[in-house]
Design a protein that fits this description.
The protein has 438 residues and is α+β, with helices and mostly antiparallel strands. The chain is 36% helix and 21% strand.
């Protein structure tokens, strides 16, 4: 047992910890957990905790259902909303088979595998997510409604912004869990909010997105509200996205930094070209529900496979950087309903492929794509059905995720799409299947 595990066991013993949650995600990115007693933690580190994987979406069949959770000692976090006497801590876990091998559909394993490829080539990646969500009122019986908490708009303050105290509680809770929110504000839509995160290692960033969603749901419920990560909960209002900021370093130097003449670096250009080349194939993973496609094409959400400097109508923009070390790209396609482990793995692998192949970047499209003629620009998928079709059989997707995981995921998404097709009342079905769940 290494020193980190020993330190964790000492922390548990000295801090009145009574319950330990072992957390992981199904293939769709839904948070799952099992609770064990502190006395069981040494065994969990050594041999894992078994669970029925056949009951987890996208995992194992019933005849191969024994999988094991191994807590990642570096992810120890106290849950601040649980009692401070008899505390509850949580670990993210690796999912393994009976022989100790990583389980193929474990999102953390998939992302780690991609990061290993980058590291083997000498690259270190940083990711920062910008996460949007809505706060809605609940009815007298506690059920979510579509009445926004307020009628505030972008960057508004109280009394128009009635969400400031909830955002404050969310951010302070995250800080107690050693997660670093960088900023928060009211977004464009009524009841819409955003929390942005400081850049971090991609696996940590993905863990933080999962924790953030859990914290938002928990804090909102404690305040009598419903926190929604539906990409388009209100048809005529802005959708909620998850912009992903990416930078890449080698030998401690940001290789996305511009040259002395201000020209974009070849590495950045090829990385962007790689992401754009695979955007249509990975959309079913970065934008996994029908509402994801209703979000595209308005309110600063992209519609076309294009890039530009600062322009928020593009799929990728290059934000202004106050210094070379802050150079990054912002991918504006994903939304927070995605599995961040799979989404980050696919985005990083696509960019890395662009660098490996020294892909040429198409000309910048600096104009407003909401009003200008898009010409011959490739469009993103217009529906989940189209996204599934474009992902199906993609050798790139199967290489990053594994063929088995990609096919299981897409089969589950196709089944969702079939249920949507069969529903007589599409709006009611979407509310029941997504709004009250995401």
């Amino acid at each position: 047992m290494d020193s980190t595990m020993q330190a964790v066991l000492q922390f548990v013993e000295e801090n009145d910890v009574k319950f330990i949650r072992l957390a992981f995600c199904d293939v769709m990115g839904t948070l799952k957990n099992i609770a064990i007693m502190p006395s069981e933690l040494p065994r969990a580190f050594e041999t894992g905790v078994s669970f029925d994987a056949s009951s987890i979406l996208g995992f194992a069949p019933v005849d191969k259902s024994d999988l094991f959770l191994f807590p990642d000692a570096a992810t120890l976090s106290v849950l601040p909303w649980r009692p401070q006497t008899g505390r509850v801590v949580r670990f993210f876990c690796s999912v393994r088979t009976a022989d100790g091998s990583p389980y193929g559909a474990d999102g953390r394993h998939i992302l780690r595998r991609t990061l290993r490829r980058l590291a083997d080539a000498g690259y270190e990646c940083r990711v920062g997510a910008e996460c949007e969500f809505y706060l809605f009122e609940r009815d007298a019986e506690g059920r979510p409604t579509k009445r926004p908490q307020d009628n505030g708009g972008y960057f508004d303050v109280a009394p128009l912004d009635r969400g400031e105290n909830v955002r404050r509680e969310i951010c302070l809770t995250l800080e107690e869990m050693n997660i670093r929110p960088e900023s928060s504000h009211h977004e464009q839509g009524p009841g819409q909010n955003e929390v942005d995160f400081k850049h971090a290692a991609p696996l940590t960033a993905a863990d933080d997105v999962i924790t953030f969603k859990n914290v938002v749901k928990t804090v909102a419920a404690r305040n009598g509200l419903y926190g929604s990560f539906s990409p388009k909960p209100l048809a005529d209002k802005p959708g909620s996205g998850m912009h992903v900021n990416i930078s890449l370093a080698r030998g401690g130097r940001n290789i996305f930094a511009p040259g002395p003449d201000g020209a974009y670096s070849p590495a950045m250009r090829s990385f962007i070209a790689g992401v754009l080349a695979r955007a249509g194939e990975i959309c079913a993973f970065t934008n996994p529900v029908p509402g994801s496609y209703a979000r595209f094409g308005s309110f600063e959400a992209p519609r076309y496979v294009a890039w530009s400097h600062q322009n928020r109508s593009q799929l990728i923009r290059i934000p202004a950087a106050p210094a070379p070390e802050y150079a990054r790209i912002e991918v504006r396609m994903p939304d927070v309903s995605c599995n961040p482990y799979l989404a980050f793995a696919l985005l990083l692998a696509a960019g890395f492929e662009g660098m490996e192949r020294k892909m040429e970047l198409a000309e910048e499209t600096p104009y407003d794509l909401y009003t200008a003629n898009a010409g011959a620009l490739e469009a993103l998928p217009a529906s989940l059905e189209e996204a599934i079709a474009r992902a199906g059989g993609s050798a790139f997707v199967e290489k990053v995720l594994s063929a088995d995981t990609a096919r299981k995921y897409l089969a589950l998404k196709q089944a969702e799409q079939n249920r949507w097709f069969a529903a007589r009342d599409k709006e009611k079905y979407q509310d029941e299947a997504y709004f009250g769940v995401l």
